[in-house]
Amino acid sequence: MTTNHGEMTPYPDALELGTQVGRWRVVKRLGVGGQGAVYLVEDVDRPGDFYALKLALYARDGRAEREVALMMSQAAHPHVVGFHGCARWPHPREGYLGFVMDWVPGLALDVWAETDGTTFRQLATAGATVARTLGELHARGVLHRDLKPEHILIRKSDGQPVLLDFGVGWYEGAAPLTTGPLPPATLHQLSPEAVRFLWKSREYPDTHYAFQPTDDLYALGVCLYRATTGHQPFSEWLPADMLQMAIVEARPVAPALVNPRVPRALSDVIVRLLAKDPSERYASGAALHAALSEAVAGEEATWDASIFEWEEVPPTQEGGPPERHLLRPPRPKPSWSVRPSAPAPTPTRVERRSCWPRRLVFATAVLLALVAVRLVTSVAPGVRVPDEEWATDVRVGPGTAQHEQAPLPVRNQKLAPCTARLEVELSGACWLSLKQRPPDCPPQTVAYKGECLLPVTNSRPVPTSVDGGVP
């Protein structure tokens, strides 16, 4: 970026340490998302007071202005990250908009759940608190609309959940973010009714989905499924059309069948949250809070067990202490429903268009599913046991993972096309083949077909949200 005077100015996602934005001095960069960069900053007027600064990546970003308006008013809540002020950079009036909020040391919900010692009772209690918080926000007319594990932070100091990132949140009077049928969203967190509306919108253009509280609660169900099983209900790595079809037509395997350690009462709550018909889910955050609170009141020892099984392995360095590795359950294989889907919300404008492309995609998806699905014995009505062919690596952690099939990509890994004669393409992602050979692979690598493979990361993280329309 070059200023009018020919000086080079860093981009908002690459501020140098010591840069001053308003009265806050940059200490370090905490992360970069699709719309903003987050920095740890210190108040220059009060040395020793640290906050988080979220700086928009685009000038005149309406999304950032919406988030500021929301954080200053309706979204203020003890379990929502606190707001402390605004600033612009590099120009105090015309620069990129940033806002300062609480710095909350802690872990994202999914990472916290995979920490040795985290119990089902702690998870259910945190989930109940999030449900109650969402219910209170919904009562004010506020919808999060992009709830996912990384937007639920478990505070290190007291174990309490804190909601982050209301960048696509909705409130009464908010301007729309897109002209498309859906608001910006994360595809694998979308509810079945949202996907059905997206399909219908192709026949009836210029219609917009009315996001509901049940959409937020469905997304919370996806978050809890990920936390209890280590997997999404439907893999986020599926092609978009297949993932949409799975969300609408496939029944997720109950968490207790994926991870037998999950208490049955908690599994049942999550299954109900993921019902295809919103009327079969919990009607409000308060109702979900009550259900989780009642479930966790049980005295069974399973509630106080670690969410995942762990094993002790020899140290990677001679003389070092033994290491503990998480044993991730096999990836679940959903069963495809034969019942007709619940009707999609009816768009208001009627303009008939041919629907044969979607029918063709549906027929192809069902055919592929029928070819791939192997019948297994049912353990519970309407739920199938996960098959081995959906299983991926079951060990995660700092050590080396052993893969009998091609390893799946990790978060923010570079996707194909890969650099010729330098990187290896596997599972649609790029890897570096190291000189070392199994079993001497370094940490953070995977062993596959006699090679040690290191994931190639993106130079800039890939946004986890996708836009449902035209910006």
Automatic annotation (TrEMBL):
Keyword annotations from UniProtKB, A to Z: ATP-binding, Kinase, Nucleotide-binding, Transferase
Domain Protein kinase: from-to ranges: 24-292
Keyword Transferase: yes
Top-rank lineage group of the source organism: Bacteria
Gene Ontology MF, one: ATP binding
Gene3D superfamilies named among the record's database cross-references: Phosphorylase Kinase, domain 1, Transferase(Phosphotransferase) domain 1
Organism whose genome encodes this protein: Cystobacter fuscus
PANTHER family documented for this protein: MITOGEN-ACTIVATED PROTEIN KINASE KINASE KINASE 20-RELATED, SERINE_THREONINE-PROTEIN KINASE YBDM-RELATED
Protein name listed in UniProt: Protein kinase domain-containing protein
